[in-house]
Amino acid sequence: MSEILKVTHLKKYFPVPAGTLHAVDDVSFSMQYGETLGVVGESGCGKSTLGKTILRLEAPTSGEIIFEGRDITNIDDKEFKALRPQMQMIFQDPLSSLNPRMSVSQQIAEPLRIYKVYKSKEEMEKRVLELMDIVGLARRYVDTYPHELDGGRRQRIGIARALALSPKLIVCDEPVSALDVLIQAQILNLLQDLQKEHKLSYMFITHDLSVVKHISNNICVMYLGQIIEQCETKELFKNTLHPYAKALLSAIPVPSLKHRRQKILLKGELASPINPKNACRFAPRCLYAREECFASAPELVDVGNNHKVACHFVKEINGL
Amino acid sequence: MSENVLEIKNLVVHYETPDGVAEAVNDVSFTIKEGETLGLVGETGAGKTTIALTIMGLLPKPAGHVIQGEILLDGENIVETSRNRLKQRRNDRMMRKLRGSKIGMIFQDPMSALNPVMYVGDQIAEVIRLHNKVSKTEAAKRAMEMMELVGIPGMRYKDYPHQFSGGMKQRIVIAMALACNPRVLIADEPTTALDVTIQAQVLELMNGLKSKFKTATLMITHDLGIVAEICDKCAVMYAGQLVEYGTVEHIFNNPQHPYTLALFAALPSLDKDVDRLKSISGLMSDPMNLPEYCSFYERCDARCEGCMKLDPPITEIEPGHFVKCIHFMDKKQVAATGGGSEHGEVTV
């Protein structure tokens, strides 16, 4: 396997009246072909901005994005348009990402039309029906409009659109958060099937750790714009090292009476990402915080087993 | 020792629209005792929120109608099934007194539940003043006590809602709901809009307050994890009906209805490794067009010919554990001969 995407020291800052908002602050990771990378964190941690910046829907402030060995950080729009078919996105709320005045067939055909993939209308219509079959949308819905369909079917349109141009990388931004569990299971199964069939790579952004555990090979846990823990999925759930990741994991309500976890309750809430100090961003809420944590920011270091953690006292806390 | 604070008997609620009648709630019965929490789970459109609105007397008018049934609050009926306008208006007046005093509410989105141009403290004091004969200063003092109780410093009395984060706002809504020490608390997806770590804080708070205030809580949620964490009883709803109802031990350790089993199978687990989630195809029946027979038939793994013949009644399969499925109808006799149940909710 080789790398499809490599991101190094990526930063995305937004100027706001109160200063600079560090939405994504010095994030580095790489993704292999056919891999699913899960990105988890609470709202405001910069996970969606990260996804958008990688697809260049937001211009990065600094850093490098290398897609299939090519630096795409600063290429111009024309060049990027040629690249766009290979990287697509699935959004959280299908109703707001679909055009309410377009029928299902028009929605799915739109990317094909923009890229002039087919010369004849018949060919395009054939491909639309084919895509509908792939995502499990019955052909009778071809002329319906988004408002006539339920959430699960709408999300299937979103997936069909993303697949239309046969991409290699799909950024899924909370694709199942708005769906009921039974529909969520259907969509997750569909995404997994498509990945196998079309050799897709997913960057899967979500706040739901149980979903991310189910679908990802590797996981990045983000906190206030930074990755604080990064490793293989199994490793993370077996051997959680960062105090924030531990608290996050313990906070999930488990639908079982037997496996009650000891909860780690965090004090306070997410600090502001505007003009952060050079310190560990989690320190104000951390149970183990000491002077050093407020004095300097920890780096993301490999503690073995390809398990990276950003914490000054990771070894002490976990007795490594 | 404790009596039923809230008792819902054979509730039927319809929405009458120009396109037809939507049967939102069909013959639902359950009870909540003092200090007890009932978790009501189900998909979008199953009728969970309609039940909450009916209890609060806030059904959207003119479409919503209670066709049949009783809601007993401390033994007194609080719903009006008659369409007589005078009777309706009398009921509305009574409900206005009950809401906020005897029935507290917590909504999903705290921002839309708070007044953006009013101090949060005054908003809590307003509830107290409305239902109790107290002076302004006394109400303010009690509002401040409530704020401290939910973990917000009293000095933030004169702050506006936008100055608080989502979790803090939800705490204020909880303080408002509990300000008059209600008998019943209705929480409609109270933590859905919050992050997991904040959700854990709010659930912890609600759990602590439960023992202090001894309110009967109806917790509406789609998250079975939350039910496992803070509820005593659980009711699973599907297409306007309860399909399974019992204590959390019944539902989580011994689920019986095919729909409940499907819900558990569809959840990605943190403990087990599953390659593929089990999901059932299809969608919930349209409440405008419910079948005569079991409404889960089309999606059911365990369906048989008999399922098409009748809509099975909810049946007690062990004391306190009710399942609405034809496959459990025989066991009813077994349960009946094995000593009567202390609950009387079997609706045949």
Strands, helices and their partners?
The complex is a heterodimer of chains A (320) and B (348).
Chain A: E1 3-16, E2 19-32, E3 36-40, H1 47-54, E4 62-67, E5 70-71, H2 77-83, E6 87-90, H3 94-97, H4 104-114, H5 121-134, H6 151-163, E7 169-173, H7 181-198, E8 201-206, H8 209-215, E9 218-223, E10 226-232, H9 233-238, H10 243-251, H11 291-295, E11 301-302, E12 308-309, H12 314-318
Parallel strand pairs in A: 3-8, 3-9, 6-7, 7-8
Antiparallel strand pairs in A: 1-2, 1-4, 4-5, 9-10, 10-12, 11-12
Chain B: E1 4-17, E2 20-33, E3 37-41, H1 48-56, E4 64-73, E5 76-77, H2 85-98, E6 103-106, H3 110-113, H4 120-131, H5 136-149, H6 166-178, E7 184-188, H7 196-213, E8 216-221, H8 224-230, E9 233-238, E10 241-247, H9 248-253, H10 258-266, E11 315-318, E12 321-323, H11 329-337
Parallel strand pairs in B: 3-8, 3-9, 6-7, 7-8
Antiparallel strand pairs in B: 1-2, 1-4, 4-5, 9-10, 10-12, 11-12
Helix pairs in contact in B: 4-5, 4-6, 5-6, 6-7
Task: Quickly list its features.
heterodimer; A: 320 residues; eight-stranded mixed β-sheet; four-stranded antiparallel β-sheet; globular; B: 348 residues; alpha/beta; 11 helices; disordered C terminus
Protein described:
The complex is a heterodimer of chains A (about 325) and B (about 350). With about 325 residues, chain A is of the alpha/beta class. In chain A, about 35% of the residues lie in helices and about 25% in strands. Chain A contains twelve helices and twelve strands. In chain A, helix 4 (about 105-115) crosses helix 5 (about 120-135), helix 4 packs parallel to helix 6 and helix 6 (about 150-165) packs parallel to helix 7 (about 180-200). Chain A is globular. The mean pLDDT of chain A is about 90. Chain B is α/β, with parallel strands linked by helices. Chain B has helices at about 50-55, 85-100, 110-115, 120-130, 135-150, 165-180, 195-215, 225-230, 250-255, 260-265, 330-335; strands at about 5-15, 20-35, 35-40, 65-75, 75, 105, 185-190, 215-220, 235-240, 240-245, 315-320, 320-325. Chain B has an eight-stranded mixed sheet, sandwiched between helices. Chain B has a four-stranded antiparallel sheet with strand order 2-1-4-5, covered by helices on one side. The chains are: A alpha/beta (about 325), B alpha/beta (about 350).
